[in-house]
Amino acid sequence: MLEEIEPDESRQQACERLAPKLSNVDTDRDPATGARKRRWHSGFRTKREAQAACNELAAAMQRGDYLQANRQTVGEFALEWLVTIAPTVRPSTLDKYQRDLRAHVIRHIGFVLLSKLDGPALNRLWAELAVSGRKPARPGGLPSGLSAKSVENVAMTVHRMLRDAVRWGRLPKSPADMADPPRRSATYRPIKAWNIETLRTFLELTAGDELSALWMLLATTGLRRSARSALV
């Protein structure tokens, strides 16, 4: 509800009277005093812009989805998000999120206000990472770009983070939904894997092999390359 609406005054009349400054709106009440908390919205160039924003704010408050603006940056929210989700994900997943955000997101757009982040800003970030997202291999060297798969992984992490920002009431909608996520190049080919019949035939033919126990272990556990190399 608008704080300065006069008796018998419509919402449109109040917006016209208060524009272009746009009156403060009541967000909620102080639990200690019961006084209404007021928040100003300003910076509009014309009365028409202010009136449109005023109507939108009033409608959002009536729907119950009005969000107060805050000064939290993308970097600050990213660090908060990592701490908050830590108990809910596997250590390896948390480590990936930390690497993606610290090396490729906070370093580039960590200073941007979370409320100001939009789809085009994320598109620019994806393009920048593809060109110069990897640090130089040696001092004085030139940065190189991340692979399409690596950029896609970073985008997936950001999408998950911003989805939680919406769930936690920090954003009305996710900027990631308004961005164009990176895609792998047309030359990408999915990994070819044996089907169950081929795998069974291989295990039967190598049953007498001295490494038969290793083949069985790899077939039934899906060990990573580094782990299986340590067994040989």
CATH superfamily of the largest domain, please?
Tyrosine recombinase, N-terminal domain
Q: Give the overall pLDDT as a whole number.
A: 78
| Shape estimate | elongated
CATH class of the largest domain: Mainly Alpha
Tally of strands: 2
Which class best fits the helix and strand makeup? mainly alpha
**N-to-C SSE series?**
HEEHHHHHHHH
Which consecutive residue ranges, at least 5 long each, have pLDDT under 50?
1-9, 18-24
Strand content: under 5%
Largest sheet: 2 strands, antiparallel
CATH topology of the largest domain: DNA polymerase, domain 1
Cα separation of the termini: 71 Å
Strand order of the largest sheet: 1-2
Total domains:
3
Helical content class: 40-55%
CATH architecture of the largest domain: Orthogonal Bundle
Q: What is the number of helices? A: 9
CA-based gyration radius? 27 Å
3D structure, described in words:
The structure is a single chain. The longest helix is centred in the last third of the chain and has 20 residues, at 148-167. The protein starts with 10 loop residues before the first helix and ends with a helix. It is elongated, with a radius of gyration of 27 Å. 50% of the residues lie in helices and 4% in strands. The model is unreliable at 1-9 and 18-24 (pLDDT under 50). The protein is built from 9 helices and 2 strands. Helix 1 crosses helix 2, helix 3 (74-85) packs antiparallel against helix 4 (91-109) and helix 4 (91-109) packs across helix 6 (148-167). The chain has 232 residues and is mostly helical. It folds into 3 domains: 11-63, no CATH class; 74-178, DNA polymerase, domain 1, CATH 1.10.150.130; 196-229, no CATH class. It has helices at residues 11-18, 47-63, 74-85, 91-109, 119-132, 148-167, 196-205, 212-221, 225-229, and strands at residues 25-29, 36-39. The protein has a two-stranded antiparallel ribbon.
